[in-house]
Amino acid sequence: MRWVVQRTPKSGPVAGGTMVAVMVVVSIAGIASDIGGATFIFGPLLLGLAVPNGPPLGAAIVEQTDTVVSEVLMPLVYLSCGLVVEFSEVNDGPTQLPVVRSTLWTIVILVIGILAKLVLPNMGVYSVWLLASIGVTALIVPLLKTYYDPLGANYSVGQRTIQHLKPNMELRVVACVQDESPVPSIIHLLEASCADGGNPLCVYVLHLVEQVGRASSSFIAHKNKKGFINPIQMDRLLNAFINFEQSKNGQVPVQPFTAIAPHRTMHRDICSLALEENAAFMRDAGEHGEADRPNRTIIPNVLSQASCTVGILNLKGETALPYPTDSKQYIGVLFWEGPDDREALSYAACLARHPSVHLTVTRFVWAMDQNTHTKEKSWDDEVVEELKHEKALNENVVIREVVSKDKEKTIAQIKSIDNQYDLIIVGRSQGSNCVLDEGLVEWSEFPELGLVGDMLCSSDFDGSFAVLVVQQHPKA
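Given the sequence above, the corresponding structure tokens read:
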């Protein structure tokens, strides 16, 4: 196994002949263990322990054999287990023991283990054990789903939003990435987030790796409490963020982590880290918004279970966000109303403190609602007024108001901003007075981005720019 791993190029495929040889050896191991008096499972089990975790060999074996194992072999194993079960032995076994005593003996055997199996005669133990396993599973699963929810709403404390962030309070961001393509844009966005005079920034980088060819999930912290980093465990992706930390002379601390887990449970690592570190959250949605379906399933789970603000960064085109210290960064905000739009505007206000950031806020006001005053709208006005106050001291901030009368004109106004900005920030939902959802919901390709975010990321918008979709924590 080690010989194969050493001769396989990094990130390269395992030779087809090697996979055939592995399958032949697995068959021989099963036959040999069965002839030797053990079950046919024992030989392949020992062979499996010799396979190194992860790529290239472990991942290749899982990828090429998973369908056959899970869809054919595993059902046959369970079928064979059921065929040898004799439920009549539970009440009328060879030793004529009633069901209660048979169950008690089973418990004793489970405690004593192999010693009990050598001492006691056969009493229908296997049948009782199988019934007990089914019963325990049927009982434990619903109990866990009902009473064990570490990411539930009761675990969230306070208003963990950017809008309610107090001056000089540290802004903590969990940046989650799966590959290297969005790393430059995320770093450049973080650079714009740590302007002088703004909130201090702390970054928790979480490299998400799909669990392939491994027996269990793992969560790795690469930096200890003293700040020491083990370079052997670091990859190019995490090193890019460490270089960013060094370029800021330690003023922006970076904590690197790696989560190796199946796609269906990755959101737990993300939400747990954000909950533990009292942080906001940023995640790349895949270039062009065309992330494959397993990756996309992570985002809705995070949106529904995160205990903080969630930001989804989507890159269109091949160009990354410009580095704000080298060139100007043009950012646009599309603002209607509601908590998500307020959170998007609050984050944009943080970015506007950077001298290289030019911010333009387009506020959409419905003609029929211009004279309407509600509590929700007063909160929106308050956020806008705060930005106007900063605008008086910052000539790089522009606020303009657009009156919209119908859905078609609003869509046309959104399309008119094409290629004007390097980054467009928008809330995931636009409040109750937005009429864009009329007839557009069924056309949404990426519902996790919201209607406007999905529109901006669609193929109707040409050019290269980034879209940041923001969802405020619902408890705010």
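The first helix runs from residue 2 to 6. Try to locate this feature in the token string yourself.
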